[in-house]
Structures are given as structure tokens and as C-alpha cells.
Amino acid sequence: MNDTLLARNVLALADDSLLLGHRNSEWAGHAPILEEDIAFANLALDELGHAQLWYELHQELTGREPDETIFFRDAADYLNVQLVELPKGDWAFSMLRQYLFDAYENVLLAHLVNSSNARVAEIAAKQRPEEMYHLRHTSNWVKRLGLGAAESHRRMTAALNELWAYALQLFAPLENAQALTDANILPDPRALQTEWENQVGAHLTASALAVPAARAPRAKSRSEHTAHLRELLTEMQEVARSEVYGVEW
Amino acid sequence: MVITLAEVWRALDEITDPEIPVVSLVEMGIVRDAQIEGDTVIVTMTPTFAGCPALRVMRDSIVEKLTARGAAHVEVKTVLTPRWSSDWLTDAAREKLKAFGLAPPPKHGGNAQLFFPDQVACPYCNSTDTRVANHFGSTLCRAIYFCRACQQPFEQFKAL
To answer: What pTM did the predictor assign?
Structure first.
């Protein structure tokens, strides 16, 4: 029973990274400065690389190939949080989303490297130092924009008020996930949330950004999605689902 | 089978990282192991950065090179443990990176706090009067610095 349950939780991790990577890739050629164009392309590629490791573990557990899982699954079966499917918004929005997610991943990976499942532990260990580059970059930018000009502060505040409840969904467990926590495979999401709120709260405050009061996640179930996911998948899956799929380029 | 294990290693040491064509996959520490079982050569490799798009090219290069040297079958396995570290780059490889215009990564001994040196020596003029321009560069494994002494931007191989 644990394999099926683990596969579902691994798929959620994979889907989060895949979609955030996809959204980040939309900045290629559009970022406000060249350095950030390059940075977001790197962030996107890293997230795709991390997603791939989780999809490979998902394949080991279920037999489903990553391409099939990614390109031939409908929105209703995706298990990502809504946070990562939202359109990229303005640059403050994308930067803050990436920061909130990076802070979550750093807290999460610090636990997962000690998972009782050896594959989960080694995948987390692989991702962890790469994620340190992300968090350093995005936390610096959050501070710079929060403490920067009136306009950057206004945009960051608007982004934070919009994103906060979406970010809280990262800590809403999938059904029956308690069994994996009991088996020391995955950490307790409540403990993760406390660590995340402490770290993120301190950094936002130091960046002159007020932590929103919302306590409830925007969506409870990872099966609930916005219309944005369907739009994203329609574009992302179009080539794979057309007749030319399988053609050697 | 007309290829020996010594020839396998020699061939692998001739394959360069497609993004850094001056160091071999062996010098990079990407090739972890090679064995011959029956008529199959089994090569074990480990990725540098997880999302590195050159990984597939490297895998294909290994198969192509060993096949050309007489291997009947080549199998390339990927492992994540032990995790690749930029500390594995040999001193000789670091010198080659530098000659290629890439500042070598700082030795960190597993301490991630040492991943982000404020100043690294310019590979062109050796000055340490440099500043970081971006921790993200033209590939996942490169950061961009600027040398105030010789007024040149340069890239650094990132610590991992």
C-alpha cells in the first residue's frame, strides 16, 4: 500500500516543480534585465531537472514513463498546488512566488534527505545544494524590491497578498499521507509549515513586507485546479499529443 | 569483445563535457565506474547539475565512442549516490578550466556557505579585484563575474 501512496506524493512533488519551471520559462526574452532573463531560464531548467528525478522515481513505483505522465495526463489528474499554475504575472509576482516556493523546498529537502526511503533521500540530497542557489537569489531580490522604491514595494505587497493563501496549500497533505509520515518517509507537513512561516516571516519583515493574515489555504485538495492549468497544459501538451508524436527529429 | 577495460577508460577519458570541451568526463568525475560483463561494457555516470541538458549528449557520446572502439554492447547507468561534488575536479582539471577562461570553483568540503565567494581570481589576469554579476550564467554550472582590474567579464564554474 505504501508504494501507491508514495507514488502519489512523489507525483505531487514532480508536478509542482514541472509547472513552476514551465511558468519560469515564460520569462525567457521578457525579463526586465538581461541578468534576470538568464536567472529565470536557469531556475526553470533546474526545476525541470528536479521534476525529472521525481518523475523517474514515480516510474519506478508505477511503471508509467515520465513523458506519458507529463504529456498525456489531463488537468484533473495533476497534483500540483495552484500556486505554481497561476500565470506569471508581473516580475514581482514571479519573483515572490519563486521565493515562497524556494523557502518551502529548502525546509522540505532538509527533512527529505533523512527519509527512511533511500531513493527519496538521495533525490533530495541531489537537489538541495542547487536549491541553495535559488533561495539565495530570490531572498536577495525580495529584500531589494521590498526595501526598494515605492513602486517595487507596492508591487511586492500586492503579490504577497495574492500569493500567501496559495502558498499555504503547500502544507495541506494529500489524503492518507499520515502513513508516510508515520513511516518516516515524508515529514509532518505541520512541522514544515511552522519552520517555513518562521523563516519566511522573518525575511518578509526584514524586507518591510507585512505577512498577510490569511490562515487558510486557497484550495485544500491538490485535485482542485484553476482554469489556468488547463490553458497551460493545452499549450505544453500540444505537440506531444499531435500526430507527429514519436517522429524522430 | 575486442576492447579491454584499460582501453575503455582511455576512450572515456577522450570524451569531453560538451559544455566545457577542455576537460574529460573522467576528469570531471562524471564517469564513476566502468566494467565489462560478457560482451557488454557497463559505464556508470552521475550528473553534475540535475537539470544539465548535456547529460543526454554525454550518454550518447559514451555509447558512440565505445562502440567505435569495438564494444559489442554498451550500457550507461546513472546513479545519484555519492552526489557529484565540484571538489572532485582534479588540480589538473582546474588548470584546464582556467586556461579555457572559466574560473575554477572554490573548494568547499561540503560546506554550502562556501559556494558563494564574493571574489574569485580572474582567469585572465589573476586579479581578485572582481565582483559577482550573476550567480546564474549561460549554463547551469556557470556564474558570471566581472574583473575590475582588466575590465573583463568572465565566467566561473559554480561550486556544488
So the answer is: 0.94
